[in-house]
Design brief:
There is one protein chain. The chain is of the alpha+beta class. It has a domain of 61 residues: 2-Layer Sandwich (Alpha-Beta Plaits). Helices cover 31% and strands 17% of the residues. It is built from 3 helices and 4 strands. Strand 2 and strand 3 form a beta hairpin. It is elongated and about 90 Å long.
């Protein structure tokens, strides 16, 4: 009978003694890992462009065929759509370009 009473009391004592020494965390404290975003740096509108450096490697078309196509007359990739230019597909296409011919430019 004593064990049934002592175990819950022991648990209550452990829980209350652990929380007495804890320092309260307020919502106004900033975490050292958080960073604030400077909204003045964020570009409002951007345009996707392909420069004359394009070497017709097909990488951008394979990654984002809805945004790029190959121009057979100029042997250069060209932008056919400005939709979703802030997507990860476009980021990957920009990074994969061996001559860095693809870029986003502020309008």
């Amino acid at each position: 009978m004593k064990k049934k009473i002592l175990i819950p009391l022991l648990l209550i004592w452990i829980l209350t003694s652990c929380t007495k020494d804890a320092t309260p965390v307020t919502t106004n404290q900033k975490d050292s890992n958080t960073t604030e975003v400077d909204t003045s740096v964020i570009k409002k509108e951007t345009s996707l462009t392909v420069s004359e450096r394009c070497i017709w490697c097909w990488k951008c078309i394979r990654i984002a065929p809805e945004n790029f196509k190959l121009n057979v007359e100029t042997y250069k990739a060209e932008v056919i759509s400005q939709n979703n230019i802030n997507s990860t597909k476009i980021d990957n296409a920009i990074r994969s370009c061996p001559v860095k011919a693809i870029s986003r430019e502020e309008i």
